[in-house]
Specification:
alpha/beta, binds pyridoxal-5'-phosphate, Aspartate Aminotransferase, domain 2, Aspartate Aminotransferase, domain 1, 4-stranded antiparallel sheet, 12 helices, 2 domains
């Protein structure tokens, strides 16, 4: 009855919500530590909460569909023009728009071996084929080889990469772009770019607006702490943006979400504080791994991926931590004996180390 290619879509497995742990294990909500979805442990800028409270009456009005204020904020932040921007309900929705304009039955996407799960889910929704490079890291030669032999319609570069945390040097991103023919759209997904401090890895949307076939994606869900508001963006050459606009539903961003993103954009100090906390606490995760003989991937993000050897089982570990009220992300579904842990507050991280030590 339904499109046959939908059969092998596994519905996206989101990080376990706090409510589930409360319900199933009888743990008090305030005792649950959720380090599974790369949310900002500091929440969001207090200015956001204030503005939402003050503007709650806007819930009854249709939003400003031109998204003027938010686009202005992004233009200022990135040194671009509003014709270069499309806003999505999360950058996830921009991924969906991209899939609409490029994919169909028999089309192909190319991605690294281990990367963001939504690329595949959208590809499968359109009956497109998934081509993977051998490595989870984005290796230029591997991408070149697959671009030539498979001629993908979309190439995904996720940097920093989720769920591994590694990043691709800017020069390698540019080399992969150069290897792609003009009718292949290269999507550079930079959901964690705010956390990148090494200049060799730092990408700016501006770097890409002169290409005919590249789009940069960013989000307010991670460093800006607005995961619950669903605001992300695509930045590209105006020809790409105008095509994406054809498949955008009207009023795709709620009034209060637009407002939240505008307010969040004004509070640079909050983002800076978040990045600093992350840097400091990341050192503790590295220390913990080294003390306990756990292999880890050097991370450019607000999470760290611990790789276990055969003596340990990532699913078992994640499950037993959940019973103690600490939620982390098992990566078994990505084919890895590994877990991804979001860097939390100092107190949350101490709790994680305590329960993980008991487990090891
Ligand atoms: C979180 C994330 C996104 C999208 O998040 P939204 O909440 O939809 O903006 C996109 N790409 C990667 C790699 C992510 O980790």
């Amino acid at each position: 009855m339904f499109n046959d290619y939908l059969k092998d879509i596994k519905t996206y497995e989101a990080g376990k919500p706090i409510e589930l742990v409360v319900r199933e294990f009888g743990i008090k909500p305030q005792d649950v530590v959720k380090l599974a979805s790369n949310e900002n442990p500091l929440g969001c800028s207090p200015k956001v909460a204030e503005a939402i409270a003050k503007n709650a009456y806007k819930a009854s009005l249709y939003p400003d569909d031109s998204m003027y204020e938010l686009k202005e904020a992004l233009c200022k932040r990135f040194g671009i023009e509003d014709k270069n921007i499309i806003i999505g309900a999360g950058s996830d929705q921009v991924l969906e728009f991209i899939s609409h304009v490029k994919l169909h039955k028999g089309a192909k996407i190319l991605r690294s071996a281990v990367t963001f799960a939504m690329y595949d889910i959208y590809a499968k929704q359109f009956g497109a084929k998934i081509v993977k490079t051998p490595s989870y890291r984005h290796i230029v030669d591997e991408f070149k080889e697959k671009i030539e032999s498979e001629k993908p319609d979309i190439v995904y570069i996720c940097t920093p990469n989720n769920p591994t945390g590694d990043a691709t040097p800017k020069k390698d991103v540019l080399s992969i772009i150069e290897a792609a023919p003009k009718d292949t759209l290269v999507v550079v997904d930079c959901a964690y770019m705010e956390y990148v401090e090494d200049e060799a890895y730092k990408l700016e949307p501006k770097d890409f607006i002169n290409y005919e076939n590249v789009i940069y994606l960013g989000t307010f869900s991670k460093a800006y702490g607005l995961g619950g508001m669903r605001v992300g963006y695509g930045i590209a050459n105006e020809n790409i943006i105008s095509v994406l606009y054809k498949v955008r539903p009207p009023f795709n961003i709620t009034s209060l979400s637009l407002l939240a993103a505008v307010e969040a954009s004004k509070d640079k100090a909050f983002v800076q504080k978040s990045v600093e906390l992350n840097r400091k606490e990341m050192q503790r995760y590295i220390g913990f791994a080294e003390e306990n003989g756990i292999e880890y991937i050097e991370s450019f993000t607000n999470f760290i991926t611990y790789l276990f050897d055969e003596s340990r089982n990532s699913s078992k570990i994640a499950n037993s931590l959940m019973r103690k009220g600490v939620i982390i992300r098992d990566l078994a579904s990505y084919g890895l004996n590994a877990v991804r842990i979001t860097i939390g507050t100092e107190v949350q991280n101490s709790r994680l180390f305590e329960v993980l030590s008991q487990e090891l």
